[in-house]
Write a structure and sequence with these properties.
This protein is of the alpha+beta class. It is built from twelve helices and 16 strands. Strands 1, 2, 3, 4, 5, 6, 14, 15 and 16 form a nine-stranded mixed beta sheet that branches. Strands 7, 9, 10, 12 and 13 form a five-stranded antiparallel beta sheet that branches. Helix 1 packs across helix 11, helix 3 (about 100-115) packs across helix 11 and helix 9 (about 335-350) crosses helix 11 (about 395-420). The relative contact order is 0.16.
């Protein structure tokens, strides 16, 4: 059976398994699977069973990530990681994160069943990260930050919507929160990280292509913006008003215009106004602001323009504006050699020239990049819709993706043979970091 024939058959299994995982949810009508939840424990048991069928040993690490390991030509070799996440947002689709984990399981299984894994100069570890979305505790990339050595102990004191601390959730899941730092991996034990993911955007569909590589994961910063004016009756003449909500609306409109002019992505996802009376002019308005850009400099330039516009609007409206940063992440550039392995894999699978896209959504690779070189493969997503029950992929695209992803793994092995990627060692650690 050729790899293309295998991939077509594998795509049926991959999509069926995504359907099965969709049933492990805390929502009555919809998909929600949170970090350290009973539904995640069920998902781990199911996926671990598939991993073991594919010749992998399995365990759950100290941070609550699922790990499947397939040895290479000899036991104990450094590993190439194939990973994504198994948690979801509330009312999610079936494929964000999950498709990447299940495709990685299928690729590792095929390499085992064909005996190819016995020839590889590295082991394969399939990672199902327990938290990427941050839906339960409000902090994102928890599983991959723990893997990459970026865990923060203050996260353990966060509470979910039911008042359960993360520390208690660890214990309920059968883990010791005091051991979480032991999930941090050592650089010399790994080759790099490859992630398979739906695009979460419309570019591949617009170009009528199934696959692309990712050039970089965008820089992102999030703020809470507060506009303060003065509450008063609707009868107040306009020239005497200090209307916080109208000023906020103008600032939001400026955000949209500036982001479009600069070629970035921006969103205001929530807004509130006080005191909230239908006949009372708002004395305070608060809104969230999320900006994504291809690089750090462009992100920072856009925020500089936004704050200048906000100050001008505030002066005109006789209000004040303050902003508090609640999250920031610098852009992560994908490793050129690993990206080349993925692009060669795309060309081997599709027979078309590969190209790369900037990823505006964040991914586990952002946190893993603190430790390892990373690269990503994107697969087409219908309408670019994600984080929604309408999330959809085509079976033929998944087949192309599985074929390309397996080729990418084999291409990594070939680059090691050619000397383009050096095997990690304690002596080379400083050079490779």
């Amino acid at each position: 059976m050729s790899t293309q024939q295998w991939a077509v058959k594998a795509s049926e299994t991959i999509l069926a398994r995504c359907d099965e995982l969709a049933g492990l949810t805390s929502m009555e009508h919809g998909i929600e699977r949170d970090y350290l939840s009973p539904q995640m424990a069920q998902a781990y048991r199911l996926v671990a069973g598939w991993m073991r069928q594919g010749g992998m040993s399995t365990h759950i690490d100290q941070a609550g990530n699922l790990v499947g390991r397939l040895e290479g030509r000899e036991p104990g070799l450094p590993a190439l990681v194939l990973g994504s996440h198994l948690d979801s947002v509330p009312d999610a689709g079936k494929y964000d994160g999950i498709l990447g984990v299940i495709t990685a399981v299928s690729v590792a299984t095929h390499l085992h069943d064909t005996g190819i894994s016995d020839t590889l100069p590295f082991a394969i570890e399939v990672l199902g990260f327990g938290d990427e979305e941050g839906a339960r505790f409000g902090a994102t990339l928890l599983g991959s930050y723990a893997f990459g050595g970026g865990w923060r102990d203050e996260w353990l004191d966060r509470r979910d919507a039911h008042g359960v601390t993360m520390r208690q959730a660890f214990r309920d899941f059968g883990l010791d929160p005091d051991d979480v730092h032991e999930a941090a991996r050592k650089r010399e034990d790994y080759i790099g990280y490859l992630e398979f993911h739906i695009e979460q955007g419309p570019i591949l569909e617009q170009r009528d292509r199934a696959l692309s590589s990712v050039t970089s994961i965008a820089a992102a910063s999030r703020y809470m913006v507060t506009v303060k004016g003065r509450s008063c009756h609707i009868a107040t003449p306009y020239d005497l008003r200090h209307d916080a909500l109208t000023a906020a609306a103008q600032i939001i409109e400026a955000v949209d215009a500036i982001s479009q002019e600069e070629g970035t992505r921006a969103n205001v996802g929530e807004i509130s106004a006080l005191p909230g009376g239908v006949n009372v002019i708002a004395g305070e308005a608060t809104f969230s602001l999320d900006v994504r850009a291809a690089d750090n400099a462009l992100r920072d330039k856009v925020f500089e323009r936004i704050w200048q516009a906000a100050d001008t609007i505030a002066a005109d409206r006789r209000v004040s504006v303050t902003h508090t940063r609640i999250h920031t992440a610098d852009a992560v550039r994908c490793d050129p050699t690993l990206r080349g392995c993925i692009e060669q894999g795309i060309e081997q699978a599709e027979g078309k020239e590969a190209f790369g896209l900037v990823s505006y959504p964040g991914h586990d690779g952002m946190a893993v990049a603190n430790l390892l070189p990373i690269a990503m493969l994107y697969v087409r997503c219908k309408g670019g819709i994600s984080h929604s029950p309408l999330e959809s992929v085509r079976a033929d695209d998944v087949a192309y993706g599985a074929d390309a992803f397996e080729h990418a793994v084999l291409n990594v092995a070939q680059t090691i043979h050619d000397g383009s990627i050096a095997m990690p060692s304690h002596e080379r650690e400083e050079v490779l970091a």
